[in-house]
Design goal:
The chain is globular, with a radius of gyration of 21 Å. Helix 2 packs parallel to helix 5 and helix 5 packs antiparallel against helix 6. It is mainly alpha-helical. Helices cover 86% and strands 0% of the residues. The protein contains 13 helices and no strands.
Length: 449
């Protein structure tokens, strides 16, 4: 009973926090589509892949460092734990400053490479430059949230994300409507979100529960490599989403023009909400998995992993069924111009795209398991195949075979293939659940009912 309470406490707070982060981007999409129309929506969708890079790097250091930290604390290696935090802090700050410089001097070149042109180019440039200038805060927010969660304070991590997201909603409206700042207003409101998050996370240092501190000693190159190894799967999952978004945009732009890109932007942003839930589950169980592994308790690792699969399976079924029922209403929220072509493309696409959520939860949990238990090579293989090589190969092939339908179909196909790979790796590692995905869903429904 106590294990269940602890488990659901961590994942519920993680899910709420991740939903708050997803709302940040979704709010931009809503206000931009309402205020700036299809062109604004297309410009936003072409530049939004920058979040894949920033968040991916933030997770590489944040989740990687926090996982390494949790294992060290479980093994009572306090000195090493402090070295891990200090090194992760300087890495995050340094990467953030580098991205900031790219934004200041090269933002226009970047958006041109992403496909922005004509009337979309100026809006895309403004959005990109503004976000990159605040990259240090995005990086530090990821660092603090993950370390605080692994330091036994998931509630504060959740609050920091929710407050930042609430501030974004308010500022989006103020900057874009009363002040009339256009695309800059949307970008600036989003950029201030991690600033609020960092300030709130700083409260953790005032609490007596804080167990990580700065130290003069840093990790050596080999230890930094190990730190990054724990977070590389999360980095690939997040960063590859930006690459996939770029590839999808270019292919859809070729086959359906700006309207198609705008339609994909609506579907992709709705998918962000669902992805936030699954990411919340996998990130919520990470501290528990790492601690159990650090203590050498395989039974506890199995218990947490199994619970994560059950929760993910139930959520996947509910999301898919809800999409079949409410697809028109979901698309209409972001189709403020009542564009019939956009509505048709997006409605059709979302029903195919969201099939993937029947399988994605299992894939996220399995990757999280391998990352948290030092099976880094397995998590890397799954993430790299699912997020880069596999999906890019499939979407290019399927687009040639079936056009726009093939682009949508590539998403659920890659999740099914990744699931099969995950089952195989689970058996090799000794963490197999000895049940098929269908049995897991059935077990989940029975357990809930």
């Amino acid at each position: 009973m106590k294990q269940n309470i602890h488990f659901y406490r961590y994942i519920s707070m993680s899910i709420l926090g991740m939903l708050g982060a997803a709302v940040t981007i979704l709010t931009d999409t809503f206000f931009v589509s309402d205020k700036l129309g299809v062109n604004g929506l297309a410009a936003l969708n072409l530049t939004i892949c920058i979040f894949g890079l920033i968040n991916g790097l933030g997770m590489l250091i944040g989740i990687g460092g926090a996982t390494y930290y949790a294992i060290s604390k479980a093994r009572e290696e306090d000195g090493n734990a402090n070295r891990i935090f200090t090194t992760a802090f300087y890495l995050s700050l340094g990467i953030g400053m580098f991205l900031c410089l790219i934004g200041v001097f090269f933002s226009k070149s970047v958006v041109v490479l992403l496909g922005a042109q004509d009337e979309i180019l100026p809006m895309a440039d403004v959005y990109m430059k503004t976000i990159l200038c605040f990259a240090p805060f995005f990086m530090l927010r990821h660092l603090y949230i993950n370390f605080i969660r692994n330091d036994g304070n998931p509630k504060l991590a959740m609050v920091s994300m929710l407050v930042g997201s609430a501030a974004n909603v308010i500022l989006d409206y103020v900057f874009m409507y009363p002040l009339g700042w256009g695309i800059f207003g949307a970008a600036f409101a989003t950029a201030l979100t991690p600033v609020a998050g960092v300030l709130i996370c700083s409260v953790h240092w005032l609490c007596k529960k804080n167990q990580f501190h700065f130290t003069k000693k840093l990790l050596c190159a080999a230890e930094i490599k190990k730190l990054c190894g724990f977070g590389v799967a999360s980095f690939i999952n997040e960063f590859s989403s930006g690459i996939v978004l770029l590839v999808f945009n270019l292919l859809i732009l070729k086959s359906a023009g700006n309207i198609g890109v705008a339609a994909y932007g609506v579907v992709a942003n709705l998918a962000l909400i669902v992805l936030a839930v699954f990411t919340g589950v996998s990130q919520g169980v990470q501290p528990l998995l790492s601690t159990a592994h650090g203590k050498g308790s395989s039974a506890q690792v199995q218990f947490i992993y199994r619970r994560g699969i059950i929760v993910s399976a139930v959520m996947g079924v509910l999301v898919f069924l809800g999409t079949l029922r409410f697809a028109p209403e979901m698309i209409q929220i972001f189709n403020q111009e009542q564009n019939a072509q956009l509505q048709t493309i997006a409605e059709h696409g979302i029903k195919i795209y969201f099939i993937s959520f029947l399988f994605l939860g299992y894939n996220f949990m399995t990757t999280a398991l391998f990352s948290a238990t030092e099976y880094v090579s397995y998590s890397l293989k799954l993430s790299f195949f699912r997020g880069c090589i596999g999906i890019i190969s499939l979407v290019v092939l399927f687009s040639l075979l079936w056009g726009l339908d093939g682009i949508w179909l590539s998403i659920p196909t890659i999740e099914v293939i990744t699931l099969v790979m995950g089952i195989y790796f689970s058996k090799v590692s000794g963490y197999s659940l000895n049940h098929s995905p269908a049995q897991q869903i059935s077990s989940a429904i029975c357990e809930k009912g």
